[in-house]
């Protein structure tokens, strides 16, 4: 009976699928397991997986290196429920559990077949639901059913570009031949990757007849995944100082949490604000509170207590994530005070008696109530420099409000307000970085504080100019360059905050984290040498700015790739190969822009890609360089087609029975003319 599926991926190998059909599945390095993972860092008997009711229970078997679920280590022999989509880390392997139902993991995408007059297309897959960060594959098969070679373009639409990778975006297919193109879907494992079904369109376009393009539709199902992170922002607090714990929903679905405190021997009491939250995908929040001894310490040395704040997921997974902290408590009186207190105890007692009598004789029903912050929200948790952050709040029983702006433990600004009603305030941060905004409500001697985190990203601007064209890059042309111009704004005024680091990335150009600015400059230029581009896929550039506190901004641009063009001066003969002895494929009119694809080893010949309207049925042709005008680029830098890849030159030999053609350099068989001139008769 099918009970679910495990996706197993490693850093150095492909994805494997294990289909669960047993009540209990043992996973480990020993051959006695149901799933044998012979890898370093995996114990002989590492974990067990027990599917039940469209869920599964995973249990770590006291493994040496541990088992991690969405980054949180499991306790040994403590069951944990899996709903599906969680990331299981064992050694260097990543496992994803998919339950059998109700998820529609088999998407009923049987092979689609579409055939037109000149070619046939088959689309297979993707046939399984995909968890973000894991590959799902589809296959396109294209068969050229004509008697001439044809070039096809393959395009995928319906998901972000970075989710889909094709083996190739163009394919030249010989007559009656078939080519297979693989499509790998890998949704980014980010909170913004929403679960659900995405309609996908795969378009196959023949270059000679774009009007005959074929579109095939399929569906990519994205699953929900979970992820949670928590860090103690104040590892050690003093007395009644508030601690801050930062929590982050790293998954792509809502996460319901409640919080509790724990201490050895239950010696501490906890106050948590808020005690429970629901975090949206990618949402962050600050949990604050106080930790105090249950019994006041009157006398002695300062003491340090250890405590734990536990995050509980309020769902079927029911995971717990503990974060530790310390609180340092100073007694009311130091130990040496005992020896100086005794002489004054009688006097203190007398004064206390008089004070008590005074209090009992005075009627005072007034009581100072602690202020309450019922709401404290930010308009945005992440903004660009120069973008304001709007703070809104609601309080009760407060006569004064104070807004504090903190960064890296330093208070930048303080704003004191009055009032006890909901209000708002707009702030502009002085520079990029990670800021803590505090709202303190005061009522007499009573005080309450709430904190929020805001990330201020640098502004980045990236433009590019290409050489030699200026705007686009050329296919199959050497010696090209991209001149990248960038500008970064990271502070509103002069501050002590250091400038950001600026990097340039481009996978297509093999530029990986090229440091183009690590210093005080906030603008500059960087030149990238472009390797020969063999496809028409756009070239992506990404400007990465890492500002203060590692707050990052990415600014991508895309540069189109096209064929370089030359203009015919007069009518130009097009040949099947780079020589006059080749068959003539046609003639192009004068004053026509033609696409150049390559050149021959003899630089006097250029290979062109004529449009179907100019030369129907001709995919590649050859023209002489001196018959076209190439002003925008140097034709000698075009890709060279090796002689062995040229089409064969067909030469027809005359048969022995046939008379060879007579020419000026071949003797004829007729009688030579007479040396005596023939005279016309007299008239």
CATH superfamily label of the largest domain: Immunoglobulins
Q: Strand-residue fraction?
A: over 45%
Radius of gyration: 38 Å
What name is given to the CATH topology of the largest domain?
Immunoglobulin-like
Give the oligomer, counting copies of the same chain as homo and different chains as hetero: single chain
Number of strands: 54
The overall pLDDT average reads: 81
Question: How does the overall form come out from the CA principal axes?
Answer: elongated
User: Which regions are unreliable across 5 or more consecutive residues at pLDDT < 50?
Assistant: 102-109, 362-366, 657-683
Secondary structure tally, helices:
1
Q: What CATH architecture of the largest domain do you see?
A: Sandwich
Q: What number of domains?
A: 6
Q: How would a textbook summarize the main sheet?
A: 6 strands, antiparallel
Considering DSSP H and I runs of 4 or more, what fraction of the residues is helical? under 10%
Helix/strand/pairing category: mainly beta
First and last CA, distance: 118 Å
In the CATH scheme, the class of the largest domain would be Mainly Beta
Order of strands in the sheet with most strands: 2-1-11-10-7-8
């Amino acid at each position: 009976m099918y009970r679910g599926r495990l996706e197993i991926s490693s850093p150095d190998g492909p994805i494997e699928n294990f289909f669960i059909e047993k009540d209990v599945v043992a996973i480990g390095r020993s051959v006695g397991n149901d799933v044998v993972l012979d890898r370093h860092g995996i114990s002989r008997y590492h974990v067990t997986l027990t599917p039940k009711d469209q869920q599964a229970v995973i249990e770590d078997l006291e493994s040496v290196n541990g088992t991690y679920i969405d980054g949180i280590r499991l306790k040994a022999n403590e069951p944990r429920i899996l709903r599906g989509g969680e990331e299981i880390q064992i050694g260097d392997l990543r496992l994803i559990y998919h339950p059998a139902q109700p998820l529609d993991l088999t998407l009923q995408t049987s092979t689609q077949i579409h055939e037109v007059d000149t070619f046939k297309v088959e689309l297979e897959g993707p046939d399984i639901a995909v968890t973000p960060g894991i590959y799902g594959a589809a296959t396109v098969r294209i068969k050229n059913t004509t008697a001439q070679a044809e070039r096809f373009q393959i395009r995928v639409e319906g998901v972000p570009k970075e989710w889909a990778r094709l083996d190739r975006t163009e394919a030249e297919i010989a007559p009656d031949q078939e080519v297979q193109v693989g499509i790998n879907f890998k949704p980014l494992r980010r909170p913004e990757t929403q679960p659900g079904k995405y309609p996908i369109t795969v378009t196959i376009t023949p270059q000679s007849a774009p009007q005959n393009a074929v579109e095939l539709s399929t569906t990519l199902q994205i699953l929900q995944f979970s992820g949670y992170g928590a860090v103690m922002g104040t590892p050690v607090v003093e007395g009644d100082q508030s601690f801050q714990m930062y929590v982050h929903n790293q998954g792509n679905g809502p996460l319901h949490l409640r919080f509790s405190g724990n201490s050895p021997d239950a010696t501490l009491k906890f106050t948590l604000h808020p005690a429970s939250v629901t975090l949206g995908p990618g949402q962050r929040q600050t949990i604050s509170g106080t930790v105090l001894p249950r019994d006041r310490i009157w006398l002695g040395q300062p003491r340090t207590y250890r405590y734990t704040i536990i995050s509980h997921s309020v769902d079927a997974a029911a995971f717990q994530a503990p974060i530790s902290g310390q609180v340092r408590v100073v007694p009311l009186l130091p130990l040496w005070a005992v020896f100086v207190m005794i002489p004054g105890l009688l006097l203190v007692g007398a004064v206390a008696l008089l004070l008590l009598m005074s209090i009992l004789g005075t009627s005072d029903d007034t009581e100072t109530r602690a202020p309450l912050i019922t709401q404290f929200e930010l308009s945005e948790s992440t903004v660009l420099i120069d973008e304001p952050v709007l703070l809104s709040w609601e309080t009760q029983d407060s006569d004064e409000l104070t807004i504090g702006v903190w960064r890296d433990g330093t208070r930048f600004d303080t704003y004191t307000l009055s009032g006890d009603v909901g209000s708002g305030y707009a702030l502009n941060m002085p520079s990029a970085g990670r800021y803590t905004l505090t709202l303190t409500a005061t009522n007499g001697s009573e005080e309450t504080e709430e904190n929020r985190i805001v990330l201020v990203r640098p502004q980045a601007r990236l433009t590019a100019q290409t050489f030699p064209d200026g705007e686009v890059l050329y296919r199959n042309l050497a010696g090209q360059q991209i001149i990248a111009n960038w500008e970064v704004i990271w502070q509103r005024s002069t501050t002590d905050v250091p400038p950001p680091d600026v990097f340039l990335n481009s996978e297509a150009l093999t530029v990986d984290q090229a440091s183009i600015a690590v210093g005080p400059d906030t603008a500059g230029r960087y030149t990238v040498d472009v390797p020969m581009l063999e496809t028409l896929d756009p070239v992506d550039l990404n400007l990465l700015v890492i500002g203060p506190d590692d707050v990052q901004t990415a600014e991508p641009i895309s540069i189109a790739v096209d064929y370089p063009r030359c203009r015919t001066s007069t009518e130009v003969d097009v040949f099947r190969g780079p020589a006059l002895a080749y068959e003539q494929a046609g003639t192009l009119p004068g004053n026509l822009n033609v696409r150049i694809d390559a050149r021959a080893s003899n630089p006097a010949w250029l290979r062109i890609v004529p449009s179907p309207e100019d030369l129907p049925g001709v995919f590649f042709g050859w023209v002489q360089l001196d018959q076209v005008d190439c002003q925008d680029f140097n034709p000698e830098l075009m890709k060279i087609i090796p002689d062995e890849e040229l089409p064969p030159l067909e030469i027809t030999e005359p048969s022995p029975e046939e008379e060879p053609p007579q020419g000026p350099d071949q003797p004829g068989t007729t009688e030579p003319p007479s040396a005596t001139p023939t005279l016309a008769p007299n008239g």
